[in-house]
């Protein structure tokens, strides 16, 4: 890995070659899952 | 099989039971808040988090707090893995983990699965190993134990409105049970030859004059919690088969002890918490019977050897040694295999892909039975109690009485919720396996043809959904499809089970506790233990039998017909 120059540090370089949108999508998938489970807990109350 | 091999197995199991009995009393004392020797540290955590440990939580509050803690763990671990390239403690200069693999790994360690689509020594910085993976090893194990303690409390008394405080349980389990045990076992592993260092990897020159890199790192203490917390994620890619992660037969025996002692102690702690120790012993007896049965089948199948190898003139005396370390031998491999898959640990000291078909069937089947034999720390106990509720329901249908367990009536609501929980595993495993066996993008991950290839895919989703984490081998898992779907399978297998299980706990807790009468079905004797084992086999086993028939069972018959894959 090339040394980072802090003055020129930019998010895409920090995270590698992958598009940052992919990170957002995967994080949304993970957090969304936990949200879904929270909703499931409310649903189980109705059983 | 040899008598010496069985003596090794008996010795390790005796050591586990001998330690589980006092540990169970201690766990029950921790659950009741009677252990306080680290009270200042405990209070510091509460003060930092603004937590009132005396404030009880209902089942929903407890579950939502658990979900919030785990969501935060997922976010932090994902960020750490992606950013490790610019963070310290990275002497090998590893880049950040790619997004799909980071997603899979973060879910994997948060759910106590520790499925690994990477080799630790070739991908993870020391910071990621310590502050990311090891921390989650503690927290995911503590989460399972906290949930199990909450579930136990539901049966302890009548008319309860709360199940305890999740944050207090999490802190107490970590401080008083997991950390002290991990410290002792970690020191023992260092004494047995496991590295514990921040130094760079060593460079060596082999006898042939070739350059070789020898990976090092803070191994010993990560391996300690990897087993104690039934996490299973190896510091090295080959897990406990690596000479630095499984340096000797004694270290292997201690690893088996470590991933069995808390799950067995939790079963006995249940008896202490509900005030009837015989109930804990009944659960333990069923768990132990399956462990012994699984060990016997693996040992017998592997010691008998591969008929095709024997036909080629290989000495049958050693059995099938493909994929196994000579220094461990067949007996410790068989015991390790049955305990690591029965306990939802997932560490391996041999490669299942190289086992005989029947030897490979056992770990697969033990996972599919629901990871309750004895299961993960905490998770095994609450999973077992869900099966207990179904067993008393079946018994109630037989004799025409409203089923009850420990003085609590088990009614339609609890059975509906129990079925929601136990159907998660077959739905996730069979659903994802079926889709992956027809999608070209997933089929490309399979290495072998025929039933063996099917076993590779079936095992991957079984391991993920069962939160086991071991790999059958032969499957290319680091692809966007496999990383994403296995991640979803792990999350569903953990949390979609926990939510209805906690709803059952809330429902049971609120019910009055009835006194036992002459018509009460005793749940501590051999009759009930047999019924419980039958329910586990039928509910867990029958759902997967068609898939198993197409995989390892078909391969077994084809092997004896002279065909291999």
From TrEMBL, chain A:
Keywords: Membrane, Transmembrane, Transmembrane helix
Transmembrane parts of this sequence: 21-42
Name the record gives this protein: Uncharacterized protein
Origin species: Falsiroseomonas stagni DSM 19981
Automatic annotation (TrEMBL), chain B:
TM region(s), chain numbering: 6-28, 62-81, 138-158, 170-192, 281-299, 379-399, 420-446, 486-506, 527-549
Chain's role: Part of the high-affinity ATP-driven potassium transport (or Kdp) system, which catalyzes the hydrolysis of ATP coupled with the electrogenic transport of potassium into the cytoplasm. This subunit binds the extracellular potassium ions and delivers the ions to the membrane domain of KdpB through an intramembrane tunnel.
Protein name: Potassium-transporting ATPase potassium-binding subunit
Family: Belongs to the KdpA family.
One of the record's GO molecular function terms: potassium ion binding
Localisation per UniProt entry: Cell membrane
Complex and partners: The system is composed of three essential subunits: KdpA, KdpB and KdpC.
A Pfam match: KdpA
GO CC annotation terms, alphabetical: plasma membrane
InterPro entries noted in UniProt: KdpA
Keywords from the named record: Cell membrane, Ion transport, Membrane, Potassium, Potassium transport, Transmembrane, Transmembrane helix, Transport
Topological relation to the membrane, as annotated: Multi-pass membrane protein
Top-level taxonomic group: Bacteria
Main subcellular localisation: membrane
């Amino acid at each position: 890995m090339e040394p980072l120059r802090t003055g020129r540090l930019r998010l895409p370089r920090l995270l590698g070659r992958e598009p940052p949108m992919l990170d957002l999508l995967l994080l949304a998938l993970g957090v969304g899952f936990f949200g879904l489970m929270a909703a499931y807990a409310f649903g189980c109350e109705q059983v | 099989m040899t008598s010496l091999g069985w003596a090794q197995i008996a010795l390790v199991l005796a050591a586990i039971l001998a330690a589980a009995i006092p540990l169970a009393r201690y766990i029950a004392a921790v659950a009741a808040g009677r252990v306080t020797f680290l009270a200042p540290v405990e209070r510091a955590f509460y003060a930092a988090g603004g937590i009132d440990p005396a404030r009880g939580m209902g089942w929903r509050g407890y579950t939502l707090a658990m979900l919030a803690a785990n969501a935060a763990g997922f976010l932090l671990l994902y960020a750490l893995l992606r950013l490790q390239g610019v963070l310290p403690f990275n002497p090998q200069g590893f880049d950040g983990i790619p997004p799909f693999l980071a997603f899979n790994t973060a879910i994997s360690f948060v759910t106590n699965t520790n499925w690994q689509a990477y080799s630790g020594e070739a991908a993870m910085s020391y910071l990621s190993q310590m502050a990311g993976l090891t921390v989650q090893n503690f927290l995911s194990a503590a989460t399972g134990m906290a949930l199990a303690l909450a579930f136990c409390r539901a049966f302890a008394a009548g008319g309860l409105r709360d199940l305890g405080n999740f944050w207090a349980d999490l802190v107490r389990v970590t401080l008083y049970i997991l950390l002290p045990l991990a410290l002792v076992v970690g020191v023992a592993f260092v004494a047995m030859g496991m590295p514990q260092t921040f130094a760079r990897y060593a460079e060596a020159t082999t006898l042939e004059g070739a350059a070789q890199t020898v990976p090092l790192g803070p191994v010993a203490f990560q391996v300690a919690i990897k087993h104690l917390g039934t996490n299973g994620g190896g510091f090295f890619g080959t897990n406990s088969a690596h000479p630095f992660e499984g340096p000797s037969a004694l270290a292997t025996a201690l690893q088996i002890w470590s991933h069995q002692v808390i799950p067995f102690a939790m079963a006995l702690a249940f008896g202490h918490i509900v005030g009837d120790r015989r109930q804990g012993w009944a659960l333990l007896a069923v768990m132990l019977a399956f462990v012994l049965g699984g060990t016997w089948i693996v040992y017998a199948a592997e010691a008998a050897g591969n008929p095709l190898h024997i036909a080629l003139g290989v000495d049958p005396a050693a059995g099938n040694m493909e994929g196994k370390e000579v220094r461990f031998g067949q007996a410790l491999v068989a015991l390790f295999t049955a305990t690591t898959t029965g306990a939802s640990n997932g560490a391996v000291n041999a490669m299942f892909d190289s086992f005989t078909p029947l030897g490979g069937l056992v770990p697969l089947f033990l996972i599919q039975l629901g990871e309750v034999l004895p299961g993960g720390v905490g998770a095994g106990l609450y999973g077992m109690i869900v099966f207990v509720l179904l067993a008393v329901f079946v018994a109630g249908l037989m004799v025409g009485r409203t089923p009850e367990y420990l003085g609590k009536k088990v009614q339609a609501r609890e059975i509906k919720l129990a079925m929601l929980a136990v159907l998660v595993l077959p739905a996730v495993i069979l659903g994802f396996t079926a889709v992956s066996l027809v999608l070209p993008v997933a089929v490309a991950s399979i290495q072998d043809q025929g039933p063996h290839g099917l076993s590779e895919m079936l095992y991957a989703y079984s391991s993920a959904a069962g939160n086991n984490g071991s790999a059958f081998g032969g499957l290319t898992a680091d692809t966007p499809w496999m990383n994403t779907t296995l991640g979803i399978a792990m999350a569903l297998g953990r949390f979609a089970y926990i939510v209805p299980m906690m709803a059952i706990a809330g429902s049971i807790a609120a019910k009055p506790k009835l006194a036992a009468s002459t018509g009460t079905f005793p749940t501590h004797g051999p009759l009930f233990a047999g019924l419980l084992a039958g329910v586990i086999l039928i509910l867990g086993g029958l759902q997967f039998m068609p898939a198993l028939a197409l995989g390892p069972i078909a391969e077994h018959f084809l092997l004896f017909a002279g065909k291999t894959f």
